[in-house]
Amino acid sequence: MALSVDPGLLVQLKEYGVKDAATCFNCGNCTAVCSLSDSNTPFPRKTIRYLQIGATEKLLQSPEPWLCYYCGDCSETCPRDAHPGEVMMGLRRYLTASYDWTGISRLFYTSKTFEIAAILVIALLVGLGFLVFHGPMLTDRVALNVFASSHVIEILDLIMLVVLSFFLLTNSRRMAKMILGDPGQYEKKKDTAAEGDGDESSELREEKKWNGIPLSIYRDEFRVLVSNFLTQKRFQGCGSRSQFTQWLIHLLIMSGYSTIFILVVVFLRWFQRDEILSLWNPVRLLGYYATFAILYGTTYALIGRFKKSKTVYAHSHSTDWAFLILLWLTTLTGILIHFTRLLGMPLSTYYLYVIHMMIVVPMLVLEVPFAKWAHLLYRPLALFLVRVRKRALA
Hints:
mainly alpha, globular, Fumarate Reductase Iron-sulfur Protein, Chain B, domain 2, single chain, 2 domains, two-stranded antiparallel ribbon
């Protein structure tokens, strides 16, 4: 089958942070030193070769950028300073934009003007909403649920959850179809098996399928998706102490954010209360863990990027900064709200709450389905799809 190429692909990818790929001369050193690369999914060399020759279709079908956790070994040992680890990071941005059917991800990653404007516009809309629709501002006590009814906020949270989930899941579906490729390749396998297996192969053909693959294979491998999403265990594959630290920071941010997201969206009526919960209340303890995990993780990553202390922090895209700063500010304002409530400062609590929401809503709306937070699903999903594809082709 003929391979179509796009000679402008390298230029296009520069907008996503892929700047030095042209200097690579495919020596293979990066693949040789990578602890996560194997014969079935060799990277970064193969992926870099695809983008050098403009093989867009091959690139879109590649799960390898999601299997890279950027320990930095490849970049540190590259004889041409092609920064293969950073190339893989840029490719993840490019693939995120390619999966997104709305085009928002592409604009967010390639235009700083759009990135800043989108954050500011959503923040201003949230602020305007509170200005027009907020409840009474009681000053004799902190009455946050009178100022901003938890019932109303909960309904808005659930609506936002449904909308963002729709975008994220439809984008994930596009990702799956790209990585799994032509359904016909799996049908041919079944047809070949049918020649020798008789009744058993007939049962396989009758089984319900998606993209040419029996649903039973998806079901059997689903645990791979769940376990990698919850633990990010492949992150430790490099085995170095530095990579263990990166895994721990990543796990803290992910688990802290997931915890606070569940508390705010699912258990808001127990989390946003006017009475102060006891110190040992499970909801309060979970809130403290999430606060510590996010604040520590984001502070570590921000300092690393300021100092450029590691290879992984040496090159930062504007969206990397935006993600970390928004998350850090979300946590900081949340801490300040907690203290003003404990100190009985009504007006400060109300104003900080509005500022807090003006930060957290843009972060959720933009980052979850269209940018950095989507990676939390795309990485384990890629591992899952690799396993599914391998079994289906076997």
